[in-house]
Amino acid sequence: xxxxxxxxxRKIVNWIGLVLSMFAMFAGLVVLSWILYxxxxxxxxxxxxxxxxxxxxxxxVDGGGLANAIVGSLLMVLFAVLVSMPxxxxxxxxxxxxxxxxxxxxxxxxxxxxxxxxxxxILGLFVYAIYVAQVKHFSGWAGVLVLSLLATPVILKxxxxxxxxxxxxxxxxAFALGASRWKTSFSVTLRVAKAGVVTGVLLALAxxxxxxxxxxxxxxxxxxxxxxxxxxLANLPVVIFQFALSPYExxxxxxxxxxxxxxxxxxxxxxxxxxxxxxRIAT
Amino acid sequence: MNNxxxxxxxxxxxxxxxxxxxxxxxxxxxxxxxxxxxxxxxxLTWGAQSxxxxxxxxxxxxxxxxxxxxxxxxxxxxxxxxxxxxxxxLLAVPMSFGIALFLTETCPTNxxxxxxxxxxxxxxxxxxxxxxxxxxxxxxxxAEYGQPGLYTVLKYLPIIGSxxxxxxxxxxxxxxGLILSFMILPFIAAVMRDVFEVVPPMLxxxxxxxxxxxxxxxxxxVLPYTRIGVLGGVVLGLGRAxxxxxxVTFVIGNANRLPTSVYSPGTSIAxxxxxxxxxxxxxxxxxxxxLGLLLFFVSLVVxxxxxxxxxxxxxV
Lengths: 283, 316
Prior knowledge:
heterodimer, A: mainly alpha, 2 domains, flat, B: MetI-like fold
């Protein structure tokens, strides 16, 4: 005999729970769509070809573009990846292949996790103290330093995760064939884990492209087009920050265009990284 | 015979030498991370020392931020950080749970990957976008519809009601908390969904076999099984919320004084740093470093807590 009243009550509770969860999903999607819609609407309005060719305008002046900011950002991100990729990958190789998971390795894992979850503004403060305050001027290289500090732990973490997935039998087979340790690590293990490692690098790249706060303390900004890394360098995130909080309409317009550019790039990198990873794993 | 043996010995020596070099080089790279962390802690402390030597440890709860008279205390910034993060978590955690529930139970299978990816992409959007959205779009909307609406509904409640008074100009602690919750929502939802997905199907099936409804399976089987992982995800989201700069700076109002309601402007540690850093010098700069040190230790505690929680779950 079924207790109908109890069963009805359970059915209602279940229904309420499922409806609430669907509402939560819906609300989340509404927020996402709202943000993306607003971003695209305001950004596309301001996105003209001029953006790519003209530098940032003076306050109150019409026209202008974001060329210096785009170039500066690309330079800093590129150098940061060039620095952090070898450090992160080699350190990952050490941790997985060479260290015997001793206290040192555990300490480095802990330090990596701490660095990843430290607010990026703190790292900006750090680079200010050790570099900018010492040389007495802001600099693109300081920006590169702080972005590398942000990217290296991320790359290290994903490299170690990927390397640990490689079956031990593969390494042993290489050893049995007489390969030296380093040759096994690089030509066998790392090659097998290549897809995941590259994905990790791409995701780190996406993350540092959008970082604003640390650049405020390091590269600051430059109103003019410049390729001088040893001086304040224009970059998209700080330009967006300054322009968005200003009272000038032209600057606000450009801020939206810059925001759209950054978002498109970050989304593009993420989608490419995921597709790349999925394809490689499938084979 | 001897010749080939010598050849083998020579090759072995060369290989061993190469291995030693690579071992040392990669070891140096690995220790760079450790050195960087130690350097960060050292430099923060060194930079903060003049402020800390003037105000002592009381700096961390001193409720004053007067740049002209050189009186600095971390209370307002810390309060703002804690309030906005709390609001963000209160909103984001139940919603993330709902989203994760939907993605693992109710959602039709062919939609699952797309919606899951959509949530993950939302997590990748840089925080300055959320800040701009908050300042230009959300704040005006909130000032016109949200804030008065909330006030008319909540003003009858005894204590909470008074917290919702105040001028409704859309910028303030509540707005910052809301924007922050939008930011950490996809992050926590993704973690929860990953954790829910690895629940052994046998566990779920047995519950269904006993006649449980979907909600009961979630509440009495999946959630207890995954609670440590869920808690770890929530703590990680908290860590992100505490350190978030851009999303908060745009909408918190940057007022270094005691907030009288959730609508009043306030400040957080990160936004104080971002706003006042450009023109700070001497004692002011040192006080900012002290704030940075505080934030570093708060996020350090949070990450250690989440690691401890996760280590407990592995043992279980």
